[in-house]
Amino acid sequence: MKLSTRDANAYFAKPDATKTGLLIFGTDAMRVALKRQQVLGALLGDGAEEEMRLTRLTGGDVRKDPATLLDALKAIGFFPGPRAVFVEEANENCAAAILTALEDWQPGDAQIVVTAGALKPTSKLRKAFEAHPQAYAAAIYDNPPTREEIETALRDAGLGEIPGDAIGALNDLAQAIDPGDFRQTVEKLALYKIGDAEPVSLADIAACAPTSTEADVDDVLMVVAEARARDIGPVMQKLAAQGATPVGLCIGAMRHFRALHRAASDTSGRPTIFGPNRDRMLAQSRKWGPAKLETAITLLTDTDLQLRSAGQHAPGMALVERAFIRLAMLGGR
User: Fold this and answer.
1) Distance CA 183, CA 170 (A)
2) Beta pairing class for 21-25 and 135-139
3) Residues 178, 191: Cα–Cα separation, whole Å
4) Which stretch of DSSP H or E encloses residue 56?
5) CA 211, CA 276: separation in Å to the nearest integer?
6) How many CA atoms lie within 13 A of 274 on its CB side?
7) Going by C-beta distance under 8 Å and a sequence separation of 6 or more, which residues neighbour residue 99?
8) Tens digits of residue pLDDT in 273-299
9) Which DSSP state fits 77?
10) H/E element holding 22?
11) Under 8 Å between Cβ of 204 and 189
12) pLDDT tens digits along 102-144
């Protein structure tokens, strides 16, 4: 069965131990690994490896010796509790062995958890899990974590209730850094607050946040937010040559302007912005003001929707560059 993004997040938090298996796949290996770690932890509980209730195999192991997967599924453990066989880095080369294991699976066998990179809809592995009545397939996309996922990560770290301004700051931070870095930040924040009964504050987050993000993308965002329209073209050419994507640039710009809007709308007198460009961004937020920043966010949202539209045929980088020029002109008024 195919899991939607929403259903997948719910299943990862509370997997069904009676099911045959689960396939998690996507282009970002870190995101896939984090979801796999979450589902195995929820499925098996603590001490699974010490109690030999978890068997780890690679796609190469399964390809070389298909019998190892079946043997692991059928093995009877010494300790009570659910069991699982985890197959990492699976691909079409080992699909036949995994499909055989799915067909031979019986109640009482270990559950099959498989991770893979990007799989086309025609992939044998993907089609098998999506068509199986007792197995699931979940695609992990490169989208930033949702507010629900952020709150779950905070709750799992034992941070409890978080004030709204702190949740907003963590959401901005999650858009700016990799999932693994964000998870480390949450863990660091949990350690930082040990023995501190006060709610998580913006100052706490600033103390635990990484000190830098992607410098190359920040270059063009600084140019746009400082209304230097003439400099946008050369920087965009450099980023395109380095492999930057239109959607990635649009997401980065959205994160940047949301942070500026949050700072511009702050009424405490202590607006919080993360990263090495903090002073420049505070100056940008004062120059733009909330009204123009709302217009900028609307323009970026429209551009992002256009980039993701099925009927979009114009070059993506050209669309983003045009949007950046319009933003720079707006900021210079």
Assistant:
1) 11
2) parallel
3) 20
4) strand 54-58
5) 6
6) 27
7) 124, 125, 128
8) 766 677 888 899 999 999 999 999 999
9) P
10) strand 21-25
11) yes
12) 999 999 999 999 999 989 999 999 999 999 999 999 999 877 7
> What would the pLDDT profile of 57-82 be if each residue is shown by its tens digit?
999 999 999 999 999 999 887 888 89
CA–CA gap between residue 118 and residue 116 (Å, rounded): 7
DSSP state of 94: G
The answer to whether residues 85 and 112 touch, using CB atoms and an 8 Å cutoff, is: yes
Distance, in Å, from the CA atom of 324 to the CA atom of 229, rounded to the nearest integer, reads 8
pLDDT attached to residue 213: 46
Residue 301 CA to its chain's centroid (Å)? 19
Distance CA 102, CA 100 (A): 5
What's the whole-number average pLDDT of the chain?
88
Q: Collect all residues with Cβ–Cβ distance below 8 Å to 296 and sequence separation of at least 6.
A: 257, 288, 327, 330, 331
* Neighbour count for residue 302 (Cβ, 10 Å): 11
Element (H or E) spanning 127, and its range?
helix 124-131
Tokens for 131? 């068509």
Residue with token string 């059928």: 74
pLDDT 10s digits, 19-38: 999 999 998 888 899 899 99
41 pLDDT higher than 90: yes
Looking at residue 211, its pLDDT comes to 60
Q: How far apart are CA 94 and CA 191, in angstroms?
A: 41
